[in-house]
Amino acid sequence: MLTVSQFVRLEAKPGKEQEVADFLKQGVTMADQEVTTPLWFAVRFGHSSFGIFDAFENDKGRQAHLQGPIAAALMANASKLLAAPPTIEASDIIGGKLPR
User: Fold this and answer.
1) What are the φ and ψ backbone dihedral angles of 18, each rounded to 5 degrees?
2) pLDDT digit string (tens) for 10-33?
3) Candidates 3.10.20.310, 3.30.70.100, 3.40.190.150, 3.30.2350.10; correct CATH number of 4-92?
4) pLDDT score of 15
5) Max CA-CA distance within the chain?
6) pTM of the model
7) Which terminus has fewer CB within 10 Å in the chain: N or C?
8) Alpha helices (H) in the chain, listed in sequence order
9) Residue 14 · residue 49 · CB < 8 Å
10) Is the dihedral of CA 78, 79, 83, 86 positive or negative?
11) Phi, psi (rounded to 5 degrees) for 96
12) Do 8 and 51 touch, CB atoms closer than 8 A?
């Protein structure tokens, strides 16, 4: 059961929008390798606004993800790609529906 999640908001620097989109597309491969990250989505809200939503069975999984390869790659590229540091909002899951 997924009990915790987080939402990460990303705003691309002008001219870096496609690079951010490409980076997030590559994130799927890294998320597949994280056994404690069963749910991971990258989304685009507009021309330069992006987000990542992921969910975990417990806080231990969320913390492992925050110390994993996606977070490391994001932080290594943040100053080059993003207009501001990523905003991370932790949350508890109170309900949801997943495909069977």
Assistant:
1) -70, -35
2) 999 999 999 999 999 999 999 999
3) 3.30.70.100
4) 98
5) 40
6) 0.93
7) C
8) 17-33, 59-66, 69-81
9) no
10) positive
11) 180, 170
12) yes
Asked if pLDDT for residue 99 goes beyond 90, the answer is: no
Give the Cα separation of 76 and 79 in Å (integer): 8
For 93, the token pair is 């899951």
Tokens of 89: 């909002």
pLDDT digits (tens, 9 = 90+) for 70-85: 999 999 999 999 999 9
* CB-based contacts of 79, cutoff 8 Å, min separation 6: none
The answer to whether the beta carbons of residues 68 and 74 sit under 8 Å apart is: no
Q: Could you tell me the two tokens for 88?
A: 């991370």
CA distances from 40 to 46, 83, 84 (A): 19, 23, 22
| DSSP single-letter state for residue 12 | B
